[in-house]
Design goal:
Layout (H helix, E strand, L loop, with lengths): L2 H13 L5 H9 L5 H16 L1 H11 L7 H16 L4 H14 L6 H13 L1 H8 L3 H5 L3 H10 L4 H8 L6 E4 L6 H10 L4 E2 L7 E4 L16 E3 L2 H10 L6 E5 L5 H9 L5 E6 L2 H14 L4 E4 L14 E7 L14 H4 L2 H18 L3 E11 L8 H10 L3 E4 L6 E2 L6 E3 L9 E8 L1
Parallel strand pairs: 5-6, 5-8, 6-7, 8-9
Antiparallel strand pairs: 1-3, 1-4, 2-3, 9-13, 10-13, 11-12, 12-13
Helix pairs in contact: 1-2, 1-3, 1-5, 3-5, 4-5, 5-6, 5-7, 6-7, 10-11, 13-14
């Protein structure tokens, strides 16, 4: 299989069947034999989705009507992405994209692909300037999301949109039960891997360049995990103490649960519940690799009767399902898979989870509500509505060097701040 053809196939499944890229890309990459081919196909998919709204606008200026053949449509987007954003010689990018028509069993399309890409090269400056008059193309975001960002972040929306279109750095979390961060930084240095440890997250390491986990010292032995520094804040805010029972709701794939166990080895018990049994398998794999133990429960966190043993928890982490609008740089397909209607449905689910889990919290206990969203309806509006309806719930302030939500509960990390993903956290104590 040709890497450009494989990427076009994956794009078709995202654009037409609305399947997440993480679900469809592995099968296409498996058809490629060389690591460099797999790397190229992955970059083409992520890049074409990251810049989809700009590329689609350009394509509309180059052809009168979008191709009815969806693989061909994806291939043209990939061709434009290479010419604009990748350091590949133009003649090579055009020729290889044309050749991919054969791998897609569409030799009849070679002339069209060649003509579209060469026409772009002849008029690139004009076409880009015209396309960027359209705001959705200039920022490469759907109109509904740009509108939501403008309303939520009138002074920051452009920076958020720009951060969403960048490549995310690779963050690690050092297993505190195995070694200190300084020890691990020394091991990275000895392996010739450049990295740094920021002050704001005591177990976080940011690599200068991403690399496959098999090249990380001690990864298989459980010395370290891959987790963004913003997600690592959950364990610090939860502040679990020795002898406590902790619940991690909507826990898969388990990064936060593992971090809680790493920083507090004297817990009485950590329970992790998730509705997806297959995803709980990943939680167990992470626990096993890191040498940790937790109790895994399959069930709907919003219906505790099916899995709860009746004993209250001193700490609950609700890592609520959300739009993912804070992690678009890692999952650019979010721009095409989510919608304003979908966000409203997620907000209803979040409210149900908050109401269902609150009775499970012991008096004096703490619940941390977390999302990887930057949209208020999933965050401070959600938490304020909950506080208004529950007089036994009180917000606890979050003291960190980022930003509080304006005159409302909780605090944010916006995408790109301190090189982190976008996250929202609220800390609630049961009175």
């Amino acid at each position: 299989m040709n890497p450009r053809a494989a990427a076009a196939k994956a794009l078709t499944q995202v654009l037409q069947r609305k399947q997440p890229l993480s679900h469809v890309l592995p099968a296409q990459l498996a058809k490629l034999h060389l690591p460099r081919e797999r790397a190229l196909a992955q970059e083409l998919c992520y890049g074409a989705l990251r810049w989809y709204f700009r590329l689609e606008t350009l394509l509309g200026k180059l052809i009168k009507e979008a191709p009815k053949d969806r693989d061909l449509h994806g291939l043209l987007l990939i061709g434009l992405y290479q010419l604009i954003y990748l350091n590949i010689p133009a003649h090579s990018a055009v020729d290889e994209t044309v050749n991919a028509c054969g791998a897609l069993h569409k030799p009849w399309a070679k002339g069209l692909v060649n003509a579209v890409l060469r026409n772009y090269l002849r008029e690139a400056a004009r076409l880009l300037a015209e396309a960027d008059h359209k705001e959705t193309a200039r920022y490469s975001h759907p109109a509904w999301l740009l509108g939501s960002l403008k309303q939520a972040w009138p002074h920051d929306w452009q920076a958020v949109a720009a951060a969403n279109n960048t490549h995310a750095p690779m963050w690690l979390r050092v297993n505190a039960r195995r070694m200190t961060r300084d020890d691990y930084l020394q091991k990275l240095a000895a392996a010739g891997i450049a990295a740094e440890g920021p002050l704001h997250s005591p177990h976080a390491v940011r690599l200068e360049k991403p690399l496959a986990v098999e090249y990380l010292p001690g990864f298989a032995e459980g010395w370290v995990s891959v987790q963004d520094a913003a997600a690592q804040q959950a364990a610090y805010l939860l502040d679990a103490q020795p002898g406590q029972r902790v619940l991690d709701a909507c826990a898969a794939p388990g990064g936060k649960a593992c971090h809680i166990l790493e920083v507090q080895p004297a817990l009485l018990e950590l329970q992790a519940v998730d509705s997806d049994a297959a995803r709980l398998t990943r939680v167990q794999e992470n626990l096993t690799r890191l040498g940790l133990k937790g109790r895994l429960l399959t069930g709907d966190a919003g219906s505790p009767r099916s899995w709860w043993d009746g004993k209250p928890y001193e700490r609950i982490l609700l890592d609520a399902p959300c739009s993912g609008s804070g992690v678009i740089r890692r999952h650019p397909d979010i721009k095409l898979l989510k919608s304003a209607v979908g966000v409203a449905a997620l907000a209803a689910q979040q409210a149900r989870l908050l109401a269902a889990l609150w009775p499970l919290l012991k008096n004096g206990g703490i619940m941390v509500y977390a999302t990887c969203s930057v949209l208020p309806q999933e965050n401070e509006q959600q938490v304020q509505t909950f506080l208004d309806a529950h007089p036994d719930a009180a917000e606890e302030s979050i003291a960190w060097p980022w930003r509080a939500a304006a005159n409302t509960p909780g605090a944010y990390i916006l995408p790109g701040e301190q090189e982190m993903d976008g996250f929202y956290y609220a800390k609630l104590r049961k009175q």
